[in-house]
Amino acid sequence: MKRVLKWIGVLLAGLAGVIVLIALAGYIVSERRINKTYAITVEPLTVPTDAASLEEGHRLTLIRGCVDCHGPDYGGTTLLEDPVIGRIYGANLTTGQGSATAGWSAEDWARVIRNGVAPDGHAIVMMPSAEYSGLSDEDVGRIVAYLRSVPPVDRAQPESSLGPMARALLVANQEPPLLSAEVIDHNNRPPQSVPPEASVAYGAYQVTTCTGCHGKNLGGGAVPFSPPDDPKAANLTPGGNLGHWTLDEFKTTLHTGTTPEGRQLDPLKMPWPLTAQMTDVELEALWLYFQSLPPVTTAE
User: Which of 2, 154, 270, 286 has the fewest CB atoms inside 10 Å of its own CB, making it the most exposed?
Assistant: First the structure.
């Protein structure tokens, strides 16, 4: 019996050693990826100053989800404080004390938004630039113009850091990526302008903001980093419930938060107060894009 217990102890010690080695290897690999720097040349960006452009920039920050991470005052928010997963903070984008953007050039802003890379060359953790990499110069310029104009907020945000679970997800190449800079084609040249029109192509331009929750194929499912008992993201392809809606019902849902079945959407899960800022042309373009997708069969 003592010999059996001894061997069990040896096996457990060996297993613990293997786990430690795996954890150490994961830390080294993730640390190397976090500390990697990127040299990205950005084309000169024109930042408008007229009132109409600033108003449109404000609307774009809403429908593109900037307030989700940076707060309604753009002074930054606490996204996650968990020693196992990580400590993630949305930066202060205003000119107040604690600003993360003080001294940024227009090109610095563009590099952060579309490439997920800070002015010092490091990738920004959980900055969803993969969703913004195709934004036009015109739209990025409007966004920058508005963010430079918002009232200053004095709020110093701590530096974000990844816990062991988030590092494991990074090594496993979790979708959506924790470091957008790793998956973006930095040689891609975004368009100077994208004219709004009710078309599949314009819907594809709009839809990138939806992929963070609804998945690359827009088939829905569990939202990344959400609790297991949270509602699943809807299937937006013709294979889901959306396939039974009309265009007008779709517009009403995204403007009011009430589905054709009478269900009220939770604004913390589906930010319909933000999609309510979308124009009819944008919503029709999204609708046409969703209808053009191959059906995905998933449980709603």
Answer: 2
